[in-house]
Design a protein that fits this description.
With 485 residues, this protein is of the alpha/beta class. It is built from 17 helices and 19 strands.
């Protein structure tokens, strides 16, 4: 059965990218389209999105009004561009999003802008004469879309199901009780089984309660968030959803056409299992030159490409740094985020000028070069819903060292394709990295690990079919929100 699917996200690559959500929101719809479904992507009409669009951007309909509440009506526009054959809708209202011209500012609009976005998403579809079978919402910013669909959608939307994907349970969008009034929602919804959470309103919980199906981005993370340790105060809700058959884990994929070392235009030399790995050695030498490090083929190069935060394990990377750099090894980190961690990394660079580089900026081309040119990719996350870095690294022949959590546990297996440690500590990271460096010094063993990683299936085909199964389950169980507790 071919479905009409609207995928909604506040970041979509290449139009606006902060993290892995942007990659998922652009690559999953393409695979769904390839499998025969009618798919559209809806995102805020940021100023930077129009400028970043590789194809023409055109208006879909004439400007229209969106009544958010009885006091606030927003003049809105809907424009369309194309991403690999999938229409991308850019929705904007009276300067709410078009003033955002940097990726760093994507998450600055605030509660009312996201409430408008939820209400306007339905109006935009109506204006365009296209009512989807399924609305696929992503992360807390879209959490009120399932609420609006059920409570305010009306007959036109009575057959449309919603699914809600949790990319990171730690970010929930918590606001005051007045959130209900901001959408003219009835007071009766403010109860613990629906919109109330610890005296306020929680966007993520609201999306989970009102959506027909909920998923996380790896099977292991779906299990973890049902525990107090990883449940971020929502573990009881997650357990109840699981008991009701409304929670599942579907592993993320990556765009294997874009992340392809045999064709990647950012690389100084392409390589692959069929064409040979000589190009990877050249990528390493060129990366060392670009970073101003000594060109040393026999010294392992460690790398990390990530958001700079303790969640990504930078607290333990910093504490383990002296040991890691004494192997000997070279190490490059490309990251932006926590200022305190950045200061510590700059100190390391000053102390180890021939072994360590910290690049503090968002730089997608350099990221590709690092994935291709390094040998060992460090990802010691405190928790990791799925993780894309380890998938990209393995695709480029770089061996991951990860902590056994979330999607990292689902994708990296020692000694087959990487190295894994259990307990979150600098010592655990050091020991696992030491095992990786020892394997690096055994060319036969290392070549086998690299090859295993590069042969992995990291594309979207299998996972997209699982999403379709979830969409069909959502349609089958289409109903109004009920008490979950």
């Amino acid at each position: 059965m071919s479905l009409k699917i609207l995928v909604v996200s506040v970041e979509v690559a290449p139009y606006a990218k902060v993290g892995g959500l942007a990659d998922v929101a652009s690559s999953l719809p393409v695979e769904l389209k390839n499998q025969g479904h009618d798919v559209k992507i809806l995102m805020p009409g940021y100023g930077l999105a129009e400028r970043a669009a590789p194809n023409a951007v055109e208006s879909v309909v004439a400007p229209f009004d969106v009544k958010v509440n009885k006091f606030w009506k927003v003049r809105s526009t809907l424009k369309e561009t194309d991403w690999n054959g999938v229409p991308v809708w850019l929705l904007n209202g009276e300067g709410l999003f078009d003033g955002i011209v940097r990726s760093e500012d994507v998450y600055t609009p605030g509660r009312d802008a996201y409430l408008y976005f939820a209400k306007a998403a339905l109006e935009a579809c109506e204006q365009a004469g296209w009512i989807p079978d399924v609305i696929h919402c992503n992360d807390w910013h879209t959490g009120f879309l399932p609420v609006v669909l059920r409570e305010l959608g009306g007959e036109k939307w009575s057959q449309t199901a919603s699914v809600y994907t949790i990319h990171n349970l730690a970010y929930q969008g918590e606001f005051g009780k007045d959130t209900l009034a901001a959408l003219d929602l009835p007071e009766k919804l403010f109860n613990m089984h629906q919109l109330e959470t610890y005296g306020g309103v929680n966007f993520l919980k609201s999306g989970c309660v009102f959506a027909d199906q909920v998923n996380t981005v790896s099977p292991n993370y779906a299990e973890e968030i049902q525990t107090e340790e990883f449940g971020c105060r929502q573990w009881g809700l997650m357990r109840d959803l699981a008991k009701l058959g409304r929670l599942r884990g579907i592993l993320n994929g990556i765009d294997v056409d874009f992340f392809n070392p045999e064709t990647d235009e950012h690389l100084p030399s392409n390589f692959g299992l069929q064409s040979g790995l000589q190009g990877k050695a050249r990528c390493k030498a060129e990366l060392q030159k670009e970073l101003g490090l000594p060109v040393q083929a026999d010294v392992p190069m460690l790398s990390a490409v990530s958001r700079l935060s303790d969640q990504k394990g930078f607290d333990h990377m910093i504490r383990a740094a002296y040991g890691l750099l004494s192997f000997p090894a070279q190490w490059v980190i490309l990251a932006v985020g926590d200022p305190g961690a950045a200061a510590e990394l700059r100190k390391l660079e000053a102390e180890w000028p021939d072994r360590f580089r910290f690049v503090e900026r968002f730089d997608a081309p350099l990221a590709q070069k690092i994935y291709a040119g390094s040998d060992i990719f460090l990802m010691p996350s405190a928790f990791e819903p799925c993780g894309l870095g380890q998938l990209i690294a393995m695709r480029y022949g770089t061996v991951p060292v990860v902590r056994r959590t979330g999607g990292l546990a689902d994708t990296v297996r020692e000694p087959e394709n990487g190295f894994v440690f259990e307990h979150r500590s600098p010592r655990g990271l050091f020991d696992a990295t030491q095992r990786a460096v020892q394997a690096y010094r055994d060319p036969q063993q290392w070549s086998q690990i690299v090859e295993n990683g590069m042969r992995g299936d990291y594309g979207w085909e299998s996972s997209a079919r699982k999403y379709v199964e979830m969409y069909e389950a959502a349609l089958a169980s289409r109903k109004t929100a009920v008490a979950i507790g």
